[in-house]
TrEMBL record, chains A, B:
It comes from the Archaea. InterPro entries: DUF447_C (IPR049288), DUF447_N (IPR007386), Split_barrel_FMN-bd (IPR012349). It holds the Pfam family DUF447_N. Gene3D superfamilies: Electron Transport, Fmn-binding Protein, Chain A, Hypothetical membrane protein ta0354_69_121. It comes from Methanosarcina acetivorans (strain ATCC 35395 / DSM 2834 / JCM 12185 / C2A). This is DUF447 family protein. Residues 30-145, 156-208 form the DUF447 domain.
Amino acid sequence: MTNFSSDCRGFEKSYHAIDLSSFGIREGISEVIVSTGFENPNAAPIGVITKGGKPFVRLFKGSHTWTNVAKERYLASNVVYDPLLFVRSTFFDLELSEFEYVPAGGLKFPILKEAVAWVVFECVNVKNTDQALIAELVPVEAGFNEEHRKDLPVPNRGFNAVLEATVHATRYQLTGEEKYLEWIRHYETLASKCGSDEEKKAMKLLYEVLGI
Amino acid sequence: MTNFSSDCRGFEKSYHAIDLSSFGIREGISEVIVSTGFENPNAAPIGVITKGGKPFVRLFKGSHTWTNVAKERYLASNVVYDPLLFVRSTFFDLELSEFEYVPAGGLKFPILKEAVAWVVFECVNVKNTDQALIAELVPVEAGFNEEHRKDLPVPNRGFNAVLEATVHATRYQLTGEEKYLEWIRHYETLASKCGSDEEKKAMKLLYEVLGI
């Protein structure tokens, strides 16, 4: 069982009461898995962009994440160090059993059991463009999963290579351009050389998805 | 001041008493900054390779790290999330004030104040080849710096790009091959897009070092 400790005491908490960097939302683009959907839980890798301490997201139209956020205006960031979960959540629906529910917005919101830390955000000042939805994020709840904090993360070029390969794989699926396959093959070599078995499994799945 | 908590109670501690993954030494290649030198403290990024739970290093001849380890048979892994420190320790000597001393081998061994976690290793079964020294690593002391654990690390493609650029920069310095500059320019774009100010400063320094 997971063992979540929430640092939250209520929904009236002010914006600044949650120290986002303690929960892995930091300046620049934090590559997290975003969970959404009070009704239909979904998870997908998203970069949460933070500029001057203010987090926001850009969600492309048509994705499950976009559908859920457009309707419900909530999302959760999940800090995850498991490369296979990044690949799986990019290309497949996760199992319902992989979600845990936490209080948010007066209801129960899905986060990932595998998350080391999570923040539920309300999406405000939502703007829609032809291609995307842009929303500012106001944190309403946050917590850690102490069980998953035990292993200290360390920079690993193999893990990083899986992330890059995943980005290039989605672009390859959209465009079919050969140059993305070249990137992916480069990163497969790196994941194989520098990664653990987890990185190798993740790249194997990614190759299967692309049929290469 | 730093606030180190050591989990060690003596030098007779057995190999398995230190849970290396808690201190950031994990399967695959852990990209840490290695500090060495009871007499002449030095720091440089090194990949600690772990296979089947057994960590080892390959140190190229001629480096300060190689000189210190060949003579003293000790090194410390320092888990660091600061991109500028990776670049600085690749190309420059760090200030003496950036080291902290911890007990190891009956003496005081230098680790980095900026380390989130550190492990002092004794180097055993040392083998010398024409180009390198290969040593198995036996942990003798380990600790955390709680102050630096506050900010939770999150995957950031900008940080990862700085690591890759640093690897390619050392290869460029060795060979002068243009292809490495192309990689570096690619990663500069990524660090600029996805990183925080720290990643941008790190890439700026790397560009200055290479004179590009």
